[in-house]
Amino acid sequence: MNIRFVRGFSALAAAAAAFLVLSSMASGQSRPRVLAVHFALEINPVTQDYVNHEIDRANKDGYSAVVILLDTPGGLGSSMEKIFQKELASKIPVIVYVSPAGAGSASAGVFVSEAADVLAMAPETNIGSSTPILGNGQNLAKDLRRKVINHYAAKLRGFAEEHGRNVQWADSAVRKATNVTADEALGLHVIDLVAPNLPALLDKIDGRVTKPKHFTLHTAGAEIVEVHPSFFTRLLNVLIDPNIITLLFLAGIAGIGYEIFHPGIVLPGALGAVSLVTALFGFSILPISWAGLALMLLGVLLFVVDAHVASHGALTVSGLISLAVGGLMLFRHAPSPYHTNVPLIVSVAVVLGLIWAFAITKAVQIRRSPVSVGPQTLIGTVGEARGGGMVFVNGELWQARTSEGTPPSPGTRVRVDGMDGLVLDVTPVHEEARVS
C-alpha cells in the first residue's frame, strides 16, 4: 500500500514538473522580441548603413518589431531617403520613438519619423523644421527653392496620409519649418502616441493595427534587445566631419611630400598615407567640389615651387589664398551640418603661411652665412711648414706649395690662401706679422 502510494505520488510529481517545464518553454518561445536601435546621430551614409543593417537584422532574425529611438538634427537627403525606403520595405513593423526627454527629430529626421508604422514621442521632445536649405545654411535660389520645397512637401504629405496622420502639418513642416512639442504633436495628430519610456510604449501599442500595411502589433511584455552604434561606426561618423577631412588631407599631402624630399625617415610618409586615405574616405562619403579640391592642390604646389624659385613670397601668398578658397569651396554642395568652418580654414592658412615664411627665412639665412665646416674653413688660417712639403694647420697635416710652386721651407710660418684639390696654396708670413 505504501509502495503503491509512493510510486503514484512520484509519477504525479514528475508529470507536474514536466508540465511546468513545457509551459515555461512555450511561454519563452511565445514571448515577443523587439530590437531597439539607438540612433542619436546625424543622418549620413555611415549612420544610414548602421540603422539599415539593424532593420535588416530584425527582419532576418524574426523579431516582432524594430524600434528606432531617434534623436537627430537631420543630415543628408540621400541618406534620409535610403533609410525611409528601408522602413517602407520592412516586413515587420518599424516604430520610431523620439526619445529620451530633450531629444528631437528635425529636418531629415521628420521624414524618417513619418515613414514609420508607428510614430511615438517621449515627453519634453519636439519634431519638425523640415525646410530644405543650402550647405551654408542659406535658402535656395527662388526657382530651385520652389521645386525642392514642392518635392519634399509632397513626399512628407504622402507619408502622413498613408499612415493616417496630419497632412496639413506635414506640408507646413516643409514649407514653414513648423516645429511642435510632443503634446502638441499628439493633439494635432502628427504622431500616434506619447509614452514615458520604451516598455510603456510597447504595452500601449499592443494589439494595434498599423496603416497602411495592417500589421497587428504583439509587443506587450516584449523582450527588448538594445543595440547602439559600434565604436567603428562612431569613429567613421567623426572622421566625415568636413573640418577633420580637410585637415587630414593637408596633413597627408605634407607627410608624403616630406618623405619624398627626405627619403628614409618613413614615419612622416606612413602617417601621411594614413591621413590621406582617411581623407579620401571622407571625400567618397560627402559631396565635394572638384574645383575646391583643385585649388587646394594648386596651393600646395605653389608652396613647393616657391621653395625653389625667387618669387619674394608672391607664390606663397598665392598658395595661401588658393588653399583658403579651396578649403571653403570643398564642401559647398553638402547640406548645412557638413560644411567647413570659415575661421578654422583661415586660421590654418595663416598658421601655414607663418610656418612657411619662418622656414624660408631660415633657409635664406643659412645659404648666405659663411661656411663653418669643411676644408674651405682653412683659408686665411696660419700654420707651420714641416718637411716633405707638408704644413701643419688646424691640427692637420696638408700637402702645400707656395706661389712659386715650390714647397715651403720647414719651420716657416705660412698662411693658407686657397686650395687646389688636396693641395694648399700658402704664402710665408713675415716675422713682424707673426709678432703682431
Give an account of the 3D structure:
With 436 residues, the chain is of the alpha/beta class. The protein has three domains: 29-234, 2-enoyl-CoA Hydratase, Chain A, domain 1, CATH 3.90.226; 241-368, no CATH class; 375-435, Nucleic acid-binding proteins (OB fold (Dihydrolipoamide Acetyltransferase, E2P)), CATH 2.40.50.140. It has 15 helices and 14 strands. The protein has helices at 2-30, 45-60, 77-89, 108-114, 142-162, 167-175, 182-187, 198-204, 231-239, 242-261, 267-285, 290-306, 314-329, 342-368, 431-435; strands spanning 33-39, 65-70, 94-98, 104-106, 118-121, 126-128, 179-181, 193-194, 223-227, 382-385, 390-393, 396-401, 413-420, 423-428. Helix 2 packs parallel to helix 3 (77-89). It starts with a helix and ends with a helix. The model is unreliable at 24-28, 135-139 and 431-436 (pLDDT under 50).
Jot down its keywords:
single chain; 436 residues; alpha/beta; 2-enoyl-CoA Hydratase, Chain A, domain 1; OB fold (Dihydrolipoamide Acetyltransferase, E2P); six-stranded parallel beta sheet; five-stranded mixed barrel; 15 helices; 14 strands; 15% strand
